[in-house]
């Protein structure tokens, strides 16, 4: 149950991570930016440790879920006023 709390808290930081990666890699391809965000989020959540401790039993499915969350955050940010001020495109 402790990992679930960490996961929910970590998800709340995804918009900030997306924004930071966009600032660092603005002219790079979207797939590269997504991989960077996924790496940052995975490290922040301690995914490797959670897999070792059997709190994540299917790491591929977990990463696919995180990928969908990241896509959703980017879609929301791109559809908002934020995108018109130089954010994720």
Describe the structure.
There is one protein chain. This protein is mainly alpha-helical and 89 residues long. It has one domain. It contains five helices and no strands. Helix 2 crosses helix 3 and helix 3 (30-45) packs across helix 5 (59-78). The longest helix is centred in the last third of the chain and has 20 residues, at 59-78. The radius of gyration is 14 Å and the shape is elongated. The mean pLDDT is 86.
Task: List descriptors.
single chain; 89 residues; mainly alpha; 5 helices; 0% strand; elongated
Quick gist of this model?
With 89 residues, the protein is an all-alpha fold. The chain contains 5 helices and no strands.
Q: In terms of topology, how is this protein built?
A:
Layout: H1 2-11, H2 14-25, H3 30-45, H4 47-52, H5 59-78
Helix pairs in contact: 2-3, 3-5
C-alpha termini separation:
36 Å
Radius of gyration from the alpha-carbon trace, in angstroms: 14 Å
Residues in helix, %: over 70%
Annotation, overall tally of beta strands: 0
Oligomer: single chain
Structural classification: mainly alpha
The profile of the biggest β sheet is:
none
Anisotropy-based shape: elongated
| pLDDT averaged residue by residue | 86
Instruction: Output the number of helix runs.
Output: 5
Low-confidence stretches: none
């Amino acid at each position: 149950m402790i990992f679930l709390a960490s996961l929910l808290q970590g998800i709340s930081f995804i918009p900030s991570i997306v924004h930071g990666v966009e600032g660092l890699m603005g002219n790079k391809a979207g797939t590269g930016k997504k991989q960077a965000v996924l790496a940052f989020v995975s490290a922040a959540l301690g995914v490797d440790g959670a897999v070792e401790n059997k709190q994540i039993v299917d790491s591929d499915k977990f990463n696919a879920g995180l990928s969908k969350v990241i896509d959703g955050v980017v879609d929301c940010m791109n559809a908002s006023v934020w995108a018109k001020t130089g954010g994720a495109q």
